[in-house]
Amino acid sequence: MGTIVVTGASRGIGLELVKTYLAKGDKVIATYRSPEPPSTLTLLQGTNQLTLHPLEVTDSQSIEAFAASLEDTHIDVLVNNAGIIGPDHQSYSDMDVQGWKQTFEINTIAPLIITNALLSHLKKSRSPKVLTISSQMGALSRESIGMFAYRSSKAAVNKVMQVLALELKAEGIIVCPVHPGWVKTDMGGDEADITVQESAEGIVKLSQSLTMNDSGKFFTWEGHEHAW
Ligand code: NDP
């Protein structure tokens, strides 16, 4: 049984990851960005298995406060899940530039800053892992059009995690970006391929099976390696 941190846990894939890890007997520290914990998470409380903490992933003070609240807790798995699809206008001819920057702050920059802020807690684990929920929409190996802000933010976070994996290898920390599938959430929509349960089950299973040899690889929720 481990101690898991999930960011962006108020709904969607993050919420389902919390439920899935709890069901497997892990301790979960779930973060949400609203001032008060959302009912989706408070409803899951009842045992000391689940701790809730506010975290706005782009706010350095919020990140510091979260890291400080952990005191001497060790983290076995950090799931950088919080993400946004980006602005309504993100085509080459009609780009909301401010929205593009915000997409980068949340999807690309925050996972690195948060991982670094929690590094001392990860180092206390015997087998620390960092999974960053990315997307195949950022894969350079797949030709596709549109969604410039989202695609570029996920392509960039893939590179960030590949570099980080190399840099943290000596510390024994496994780092992998993960494509969660096309999932029925507010972001994925009703037409998506898979349910949050399928995606979360796959990601949890993957997180349990990863070894140091896997660090720096891009995986799918099914546990297959994804082409960059
Ligand atoms: P949802 O839109 O359902 O949920 C997004 C979560 O991220 C919410 O909990 C939201 O909090 C949180 N969040 C967003 N911005 C911030 C922020 N600035 N600080 C803290 N939390 C924040 O998305 P999904 O569950 O579908 O997506 C989860 C991850 O999976 C994302 O990284 C997404 O890019 C990725 N993904 C999803 C796919 C899909 O098909 N659904 C496909 C590929 C990748 P709040 O409730 O407060 O808004």
UniProtKB/TrEMBL annotation:
InterPro entries: NAD(P)-bd_dom_sf, SDR_enzymes, SDR_fam. Coiled coil: none annotated. Gene3D superfamilies: NAD(P)-binding Rossmann-like Domain. Signal peptide: none annotated. GO terms for molecular function: oxidoreductase activity, acting on the CH-OH group of donors, NAD or NADP as acceptor. It comes from the Bacteria. Belongs to the short-chain dehydrogenases/reductases (SDR) family. This is C-factor. The lineage of its organism: Bacteria, Pseudomonadati, Pseudomonadota, Gammaproteobacteria, Vibrionales. The gene is csgA_2.
